[in-house]
Specification:
By secondary structure, this protein is an alpha/beta fold. It is built from 10 helices and 6 strands; from the N terminus they run H-E-H-H-H-H-E-H-E-H-E-H-E-H-E-H. It folds into 2 domains: 69 residues, no CATH class; 104 residues, TIM Barrel. It has a 6-stranded parallel sheet. The two termini are 29 Å apart.
Length: 199
């Protein structure tokens, strides 16, 4: 299914496809409850860790998907959540790292990722400007200046009126970095409009 999505993304004109790389045991505890949106869209009796285990991909799958991306001349990226996943993706030769919004409040992890010397694309949903500042500083202290910040509303799905696209301008002014938009709305309006304020 992933490879078919890669091919369809290429046919639609996408430059890049992004997956998620994680092992459930390294992401949540057995006691971690599901988020409200997960309770609405999945079996409420199922634990979060069991739900996430079903979404994991085997390491050999990544190699097949990466090869499919190369054959279709489309960039492969994957969101990573811990150092083991960073090391694994780096061993595959990914051209950049995508970090989830949770990483905007994890400066040491973001710095570890930045030390690989590749571009870092960092979502910032739910992070305060102070947390983003601390993480940006940690990344820059590694000597890696290849950083893009994404405005992101951490809600699934997110309402159009909560897109807060002006946050991109705030971050651009505050940090002097390129900015973009990570979208969780259910149509393309916010994505289209995000270009005007700098995505």
């Amino acid at each position: 299914m992933a490879m078919e999505l890669v091919r369809k993304a290429k046919r639609c004109g996408a430059d890049c496809v992004k997956f998620q790389t994680f092992k459930a045991e390294r992401l949540v505890t057995k006691e971690a409850p599901k988020a409200e949106y997960q309770l609405k869209t999945t079996d409420a009796k199922e634990s979060q860790i069991d739900m996430l285990k079903k979404l994991e991909m085997a390491e050999e799958s990544y190699r097949k998907i990466l090869q499919c991306c190369q054959e279709n001349e489309i960039i492969f990226l994957s969101t990573t959540y811990n150092v083991e996943d960073v090391d694994f993706l780096d061993s595959l030769g990914v051209p950049a790292f995508k970090l989830a919004s949770i990483s905007a409040a994890e400066p040491s992890f973001a710095a570890y990722t930045a030390k690989k010397g590749k571009p870092v694309i960092l979502s910032t949903g739910m992070a305060t400007i102070g947390e983003v500042d601390e993480t940006v500083r940690a990344i820059k202290e590694t000597g890696n200046e290849q950083l893009i910040l994404l405005q992101c509303t951490t809600n699934y799905p997110s309402r159009l009126e909560d897109a807060n696209l002006l946050a991109m301008q705030t971050m651009h002014i505050a940090f002097g970095l390129q900015v973009g938009y990570s979208d969780h709305t259910q149509d393309d309006t916010a994505c289209i409009v995000s270009v005007a304020p700098g995505a």
